[in-house]
Write a structure and sequence with these properties.
Length: 272
Amino acid sequence: MTVDDDPGVSRAIARDLRRHYGADHRIVRAESGESALEALRELKLRGDLVAVILADYRMPQMNGIEFLEQALGIYPGARRVLLTAYADTNAAIDAINVVDLDHYLLKPWDPPEEKLYPVVDDLLAAWRSSDYRPVPATKVVGHRWSARSSLVREFLARNQVPYRWYSSDEPEGQRLLEAAGAEVRRLPLVVTPDGTALMEPEPAELAAHVGLATTPTADFYDLVVIGGGPAGLGSAVYGASEGLRTVLVERSATGGQAGQSSRIENYLGFPD
């Protein structure tokens, strides 16, 4: 990501970066700190990764250091670079302590082959070597003691859908709510790995968005089993073993009561 309020400079650095890194990386360009933060929140909501952020120091309303300080809370693993003029080098040095700056780059950076690309190459290498890839997971934001939030969490857990829980009172939960434009009174909020935001989702809607089968794949079945408890699972298994085209319909999660009990290896209802 590049952030510079001067349109000419913004286009120039984005052009140079796309020319060298465009085949492997997406270059996002912003012309103010506020618009850049909005873009970062959207990227975070979608589960995208940000490797390097280059921000100009002298920007109105929010300077580069102030922007990078807020960006640090959204993408702490991203490498941070401050673009400065010769007169701003002291401010850049101070920023090393304020925002844990990785590098400051003097303008102009021509030729980029000597002054820009080697710096970015080193930062990308450091980013790749760090533990920067989060495990893709559905995010759930809600009130800690909300019955509705508990039902959503139970639904995901029983269907073995990986998820991360965020309390709406915690900073990370509040950032997710802000990025999704969600209202506190309409919780829980569920954000799927592809960035889809669902507010107060019903089980069928939630199931469809987290990859669970919600529609039949065939027009005709020999055997339809309603209820996925141990008896229903047994019937479905035996029907399928006899060559019958079988479908199992369950409103919540397969396994029934067994799905919430200690695992018994040879008893139907315990998912692998």
